[in-house]
Amino acid sequence: MASARQVNIAVIGAGGVGKCFLSQLEQLAARRASPKLVLTYICSSKKALYNTDHLAIDLDNVTSTLAASTAAPLPLPKLVEFLSSSGSKTVLVDNTSSEDIAAAYPKFLGQGISIVTPNKKAFSGSFKLWQDIFSAAEQSGAKVYHESSVGAGLPVISTLKDLVDTGDEVTKIEGVFSGTMSFLFNSFAPTSGSGGQWSAEVKKAKELGYTEPDPRDDLNGLDVARKLTILARLAGLEIESPTSFPVQSLIPKELESVASGDEFLEKLPAFDAQMEETKAAAEKEGKVVRFVGSIDVAAKQVKVGLEKFDLAHPIAALKGSDNIISFYTKRYGSNPLIIQGAGAGGDVTAMGVTSDLLKVLSQIS
Ligand SMILES: NC(=O)c1ccc[n+]([C@@H]2O[C@H](COP(=O)([O-])OP(=O)(O)OC[C@H]3O[C@@H](n4cnc5c(N)ncnc54)[C@H](OP(=O)(O)O)[C@@H]3O)[C@@H](O)[C@H]2O)c1
To answer: 156-342: which CATH number, 3.40.190.10, 3.40.120.10, 3.40.50.80, 3.30.360.10?
Structure first.
């Protein structure tokens, strides 16, 4: 029987964030004697490492060991069984963006397995899945944290929870929630200088690795809509899904169905005039255009799209690919509580996951 002062860790996903998390876990496990942190399962989409008797997997060079493994990942129902039969408390770390894994959270939680994750899918899917997740956790006592699902490692979700739990009244949340959109608009419509052509900025962002392989996956606004769904629900709104409120897509209608991201980039310059007009209209008012999400809590309105901001506004003054999130509340009055900084990157995103793991450990061990 495993010791009560041992917590097992199962990791799904060892990509950009997963690798950084594993390195942070290795340091954490070496630093903290109790509870003993034991990696008992790790997988990517095709390979897995585990011992049927739940013995520890060596964290040293674990990603290379995983790459060399010939074992396939366990199907999710089998994984639930495997993890819940270990005799120790277990935390599942989901470092994927898989909807299937997200849909299985209630099963894991129902069996007492806690979850920490940067994956937005579970919390921005259907409202029913949201309810199932939190009722399964409540019933079993398992914990679920997802700080990095909004703003990567920035303390956005924990701050909102603290505001709500201590009885403040959140009236509005507004911000730039996408590193890609931040980079694009800070270079297309800077507060000083003229900025580049829209299509050239999109191409540059792709070359620098700031966009998804197909930039339309950033420009359709859905990623921002998912983050807004999560925050609106935490603020108390019953948002049905990320497509149940207005989301402005920056993909020209004519280019929605072109076959590839490369073809999209090739044809985008023909539509630069539309974005130039938007930029010029803002400039005429002494403003700049930015792609923002906002939640008007009292009016129960959520929206995502282009807005104009005075040059002195913190949203206009953002730099690089930073995120900024402003919480307007009764206690903070007319000066919002503002959180700003890198909203993407393996190390900072994994930091949010690791700090969630520490919160879970303090409650279950
Ligand atoms: N990167 C960031 O800056 C950032 C910021 C905030 C939030 N996030 C979130 O963090 C999560 C991970 O992002 P990432 O950048 O690390 O992605 P990534 O580099 O694409 O890595 C994803 C990992 O998950 C594995 N995977 C995917 N589907 C799986 C499945 N069904 N079963 C088992 N393993 C599966 C992949 O395996 P293969 O290698 O075999 O495909 C890969 O190891 C996502 O939810 C993302 O939205 C990322």
So the answer is: 3.30.360.10
